[in-house]
Write a structure and sequence with these properties.
Layout: H1 2-33, H2 37-53, E1 66-68, E2 80-82, H3 83-99, H4 104-120, E3 131-133, E4 139-140, E5 149-150, H5 151-168, H6 173-187, E6 205-206, H7 225-233, H8 241-248, E7 259-260, E8 263-264, H9 302-319, E9 336-340, E10 346-350, H10 362-366, H11 373-386, E11 391-392, E12 395-396, E13 399-401, E14 407-409, E15 411-413, H12 414-417, H13 420-428, H14 431-437, H15 440-448
Antiparallel strand pairs: 1-15, 2-3, 3-4, 5-6, 7-8, 9-10, 11-12, 13-14
Helix pairs in contact: 1-11, 2-3, 2-13, 3-5, 3-13, 4-6, 5-6, 7-15
Amino acid sequence: MKKIVLFALLGIVLASCQANMAQKETKSTALVSQLSDNQLMDKVQSDALKYFWDYAEPNSLLGRERYHEDNIYPDNDKHVVTTGGSGFGLATILVGVERGFIPRKEAVKRLTTMMNFLEKADRFHGAWSHWINGETGKVVPFGRKDNGGDLVESAFLTSGILMVREYFKDGNAEEKALAKKCDELWKGIEWNWYTKGGQKVLYWHWSPNYGWEMNFPLEGYNECLITYILAASSPTHSIDAETFYKGWTRNGTYLTDKTKYGLPLYVKHNYSEEYGGPLFWAHYSYIGLDPRGLSDKLIKNYFDLNKNQVLIDYKYCVENPKKWNGYGENYWGLTASYTRNDDGGVGYTAHQPTEDRGVITPTAALSSFPYSPKESMDFLRFIYTQKPQFIGSAGPFDATSIHYNNWFTPRYLAIDQGTIAPMIENYRTGFLWKLFMNAPEIKEGLKKLDFKSEKYNIK
C-alpha cells in the first residue's frame, strides 16, 4: 500500500515537473516569437558563439571537434581540436566582438592563447593536421594515413587567422602583438610544397609516415576554392595561376551548361552534377571570400553560382520528391552533418538532394543567409518558435527530422556551428568579407589569378 501511495506521489511530482517545463517552454517560445528579424539574428549569432566561447577546448581555447549535450563522446575525444572548425570559430569570435556579445579585451587575450598554441603545435611544411590534441599540440590522426598536414583544413583556419590579423593590426600594443603572431603563422605555410614536386595542382594531404599516399588532388568544384586563393596570395610560398586553372578548374572542364529548376549550375559539382553538392560548398570558402560580383576567367559571378546552388537545394526540399513529413518553405537545407541511421542511431553523411535521408541540418539554411535571406529567415523563425526542442544551449542542434517524430541529436559539430554567425554577419554588414578582401596579399593573389571585383578595386 505504501509503495502504491509512493508511486502515486512520484507520478504527481513528475507530472507537475513536466507541466512546469511545458509552461516554461511555451513562455520562452512566446518571447522568441515577439523578436524582430534583427533581434532573432542577434540571438542565433550569440547562441552559436557559445560553442567557441563557452565550450572551447580548455587548454588551447580552440574549437573542439564536437560538443555533445548528451555527454556521449567517441574515443574520449573531449580534447580533440579541429583546425578548420577553429578557423570558423575565429571568425565567429570576431563577430562576437563586433556585435558586443563578448568584451574586446577578453577576446584578444583568448585569441593570443590560441595563436601561441598553434605556433607550437605540430606542423607539416607549415600546414596543421585535421585534428590536434588540445592539451599537447600533437597530431590526432583523422585516419590511419591522415596523420600529417591537411592543407584544406589549414586553409579554413588560415582564413580566420588573416581576418583576426586585419581586425586588430591597428589596435593597441597587445592587439598589434596578436596581429604579428597571426602574420607569422600565415607566412609559415608552404602552400607550393603541396603541389607534390611542382605538379600543376594542389594536394590535400601529406604524412611524414605515408608521404602522398592519400593522393587527393584538389579539383573543383567543391569547398576547396579558398585553398587556391590563399596559396596564390602567400607572400612566402606561393603558387602560380597555371596551378589554379589546370588544377582547380580541371583545365576549364569543370564548367557545365546544365540547369535545375531553371537555374544554371555553372560548374560541375563533384559527385552531384545534377543538383549541386551539399550546401557547405557555398559556405566554407566564403566566410572571408566575398562572392558578390567576384569573377575570374571562367566564372562570371561567384555569387550567382552559390545563390543558385542554395535555391536548387531549397526548391528540392519544397518539391520534396521523397515525401518527408515537414519539408517545405520553412524547413529545408541539406548539408554534411550528423544524421539518423536506419536503426535510429546517430551517424554522419553529406546530405544533399542525391543523398536525402529526411534529415534537415539547420546550418544549411542559416549559413545561406547571404544567398537566400527570405528563405533563411523563414527557417530561422520557424525553428526557434515552432520547434524549440531542436534548440540547445549553443543554438540549433546539428541534425533534425520532423519526419521521424521530431528526432534530433543533442550534439554540435564545430564545422557546422562555426559558419552560422559569420555568414549571417556577412549578409547583415559584409563585416568579415571586408576584412579578408582588403588584406593586401589577398588582393594581389586574386589579381594574379585574374579575379575581378569592382567592390574591392580588384581589376
